[in-house]
């Protein structure tokens, strides 16, 4: 099955125009997070895995030849056990999600220590893959027909029909990694045609997480997918992800021309992170009720909320805290907490803007 080359072409690069702080009716109030239980990372001994349990392949999924993956976020407790497990993303199969969570519960670490005392380690991520060997992993005929139907609708710019047909494909089930890869490519292209960059990035990530060595789309597609992800992350102000993606670009063989193309934008990102500009990130609560973002700064606020948001959870290297949403407040994170992810929970499709603030914009 051939995929359209123009679906993966690099689009225009920009740092966007969303880096100004929107005026609000009231002065944001600072939320000073507790410092005493946090410690400098330089003095910490990080946790080390001592027991990892492979997830059990669900029997019914194996019989069907189903494959998938699950990404999880978790906390390593002071006794080295794993707790507070959250499914961040997956191929959408509940059986795999349950198996992944159950396996991760059995993992054991030697805990992190500071000054001889164990501490929690709260910034941990893992992807567990479910792949079968020795099977024909091509796509089914009915999948190929459905794929071509969606592609034809896209070629005619009938986005309504393309969306409808792609939803039917999902409802009928995606069997293996190859089918999920091509389905994600369709959804990314539909989102691009609809100018929905958030949804497009979601599905481009799904392609890369499933086909990270070009097994299904071909080795020549992988660098183009990385470029596409780089651009989408850049234009959505996901700057730590931009830097991570560029590191992956640098590992590609015979890729000097591409590195030279992207490097000026990496320099702009690094300068922006050091600047006094406000960084604006669009947020939208997913179907499972949350939204995740890796913070590049130690202060942030939530603005322009449309819908209902419930909680803000911070998961940092050595600290985890949960707060009620306050749209007129600024969260100021102590430097000693280390790198942090923020998890915003609320009603599905609720939208908002997360503003990452430079130090001078944090009220004292």
From TrEMBL:
Pfam families: TonB_C. It is found in: Cell inner membrane. SUPFAM superfamilies: TolA/TonB C-terminal domain. Keywords: Cell inner membrane, Cell membrane, Membrane, Protein transport, Transmembrane, Transmembrane helix, Transport. The keyword Transport applies. It is a single-pass membrane protein. GO terms for cellular component: plasma membrane. InterPro entries: TonB-dependent_transducer, TonB/TolA_C, TonB_C. GO terms for biological process: protein transport; transmembrane transport. Residues 42-139 form the TonB C-terminal domain. It comes from the Bacteria. Belongs to the TonB family. PANTHER family: PROTEIN TONB (PTHR33446:SF14), PROTEIN TONB-RELATED (PTHR33446). This is TonB family protein. It comes from Paraglaciecola polaris LMG 21857.
């Amino acid at each position: 099955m051939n995929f359209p080359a123009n679906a993966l072409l690099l689009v225009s690069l920009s740092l966007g125009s969303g880096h100004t702080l929107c005026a609000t009716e009231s002065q944001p109030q600072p939320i000073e997070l507790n410092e005493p239980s946090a410690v400098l990372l330089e003095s910490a001994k990080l946790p080390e895995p001592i027991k990892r349990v492979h997830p059990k392949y669900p029997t019914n999924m194996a019989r069907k030849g189903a494959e998938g993956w699950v990404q999880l976020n978790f906390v390593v407790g002071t006794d080295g056990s794993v707790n507070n497990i959250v499914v961040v993303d997956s191929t959408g199969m509940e059986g795999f999600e349950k198996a992944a969570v159950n396996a991760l519960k059995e993992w054991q670490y030697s805990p992190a220590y500071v000054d001889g005392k164990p501490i929690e380690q709260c910034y941990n991520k893992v992807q567990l893959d479910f792949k079968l060997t020795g099977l024909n992993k091509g796509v089914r005929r009915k999948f190929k027909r459905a794929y071509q139907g969606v592609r034809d609708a896209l070629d005619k710019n009938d986005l309504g029909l393309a969306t409808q047909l792609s939803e039917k494909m999902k409802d009928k089930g995606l069997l293996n990694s190859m089918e999920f890869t091509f389905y994600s490519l369709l959804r990314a292209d539909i989102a691009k045609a609809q100018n929905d960059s958030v949804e497009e990035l979601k599905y481009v990530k799904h392609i890369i997480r499933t086909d990270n060595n070009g097994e299904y789309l071909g080795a020549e597609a992988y660098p183009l997918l990385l470029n596409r992800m780089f651009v989408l992350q850049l234009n959505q102000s996901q700057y730590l992800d931009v830097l991570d993606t560029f590191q992956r670009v640098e590992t590609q063989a015979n890729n000097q021309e591409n590195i030279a193309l992207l490097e000026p934008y990496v320099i702009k990102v690094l300068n922006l992170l050091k600047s006094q500009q406000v960084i604006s990130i669009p947020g939208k609560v997913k179907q499972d009720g949350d939204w995740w973002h890796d913070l590049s700064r130690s202060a942030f606020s939530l603005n322009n909320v449309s819908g209902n948001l419930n909680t803000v959870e911070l998961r940092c290297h050595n600290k985890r805290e949960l707060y009620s949403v306050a749209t007129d407040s600024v969260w100021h994170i102590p430097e000693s907490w280390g790198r942090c992810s923020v998890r915003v929970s609320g009603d599905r499709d609720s939208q908002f803007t997360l503003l990452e603030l430079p130090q001078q914009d944090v009220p004292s």
